[in-house]
Structure to design on (207 residues):
C-alpha cells in the first residue's frame, strides 16, 4: 500500500481542531473549528474522492481517540466517508493504549516506523493518515510517506499544533495537482522528493 499523509491545514500550518471548538482542546487550544466556515460542495467532493482510495487508516493516539469517539455515531450507510472510516482496518501508533474499541483496529507500539513499513507491504491501494500531525511529520521524515495531500484553508489561526513544526526535518516536494474550491480552500497534492534542493539567486542572470 502507498502511505498517504492527508491533512486539513490553516494558512499558518495549524492542523489542530479543524472541525469544531471541542474537537481537540489539548494543550489549552481554544481556536478549533477554523475550517468549517470554508466548507462547500467542492471540498466534500475532493475529500470524498481521496478517501475512496483508502484500504486502511493510520492514526496517532490522540486523533484515534477523537475519531473513535465521534465517527461510530455517524453510521449512515449512504455516507461514503463514514462507511470507510468505520468499516476498514485501522492502525493506531501508541505507547499507552492497551485496547482499541473502534473495530477493526490494530495497535502499533515500539518501533512504529518499522511496523508501518510492514503494513505498507500488505496488499491494497492506500494506507491513509488523517490528522495525527506529529505521527505524519515523523513518518515523512523517515521517508515512508508516498504522497502528501493538503486542504489549506484561507485563515491564520495563530496558534495550535502544526504539521510542520519549527526545526522539523527538511523535505523536498513535487506538486502533482492543485485545485481551489469556491470558498477558497486549496487542495494540493505533493510527492516527496527527498532532501530539498538549494541554490543562490543571481540577480544579474534574470536581467
Amino acid at each position: 500500500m502507498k502511505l498517504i499523509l492527508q491533512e486539513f491545514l490553516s494558512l499558518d500550518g495549524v492542523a489542530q481542531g479543524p472541525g469544531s471548538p471541542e474537537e481537540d482542546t489539548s494543550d489549552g487550544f481554544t481556536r478549533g473549528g477554523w475550517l468549517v466556515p470554508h466548507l462547500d460542495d467542492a471540498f466534500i467532493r475532493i475529500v470524498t474522492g481521496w478517501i475512496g482510495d483508502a484500504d486502511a487508516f493510520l492514526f496517532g493516539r490522540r486523533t484515534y481517540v477523537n475519531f473513535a469517539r465521534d465517527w461510530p455515531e455517524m453510521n449512515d450507510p449512504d455516507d461514503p466517508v463514514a462507511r470507510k472510516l468505520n468499516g476498514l482496518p485501522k492502525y493506531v501508533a501508541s505507547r499507552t493504549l492497551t485496547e482499541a474499541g473502534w473495530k477493526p483496529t490494530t495497535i502499533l507500539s515500539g518501533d512504529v516506523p518499522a511496523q508501518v513499513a510492514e503494513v505498507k507491504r500488505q496488499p491494497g491501494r492506500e494506507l491513509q493518515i488523517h490528522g495525527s500531525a506529529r505521527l505524519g511529520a515523523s513518518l515523512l521524515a523517515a521517508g515512508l510517506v508516498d504522497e502528501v495531500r493538503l486542504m489549506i484553508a484561507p485563515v491564520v489561526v495563530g496558534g495550535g499544533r502544526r504539521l510542520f513544526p519549527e526545526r522539523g526535518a527538511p523535505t523536498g516536494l513535487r506538486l502533482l495537482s492543485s485545485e481551489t474550491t469556491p470558498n477558497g480552500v486549496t487542495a494540493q497534492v505533493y510527492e516527496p522528493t527527498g532532501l530539498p534542493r538549494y541554490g543562490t539567486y543571481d540577480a544579474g542572470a534574470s536581467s
Observations:
- The chain has one domain: 2-185.
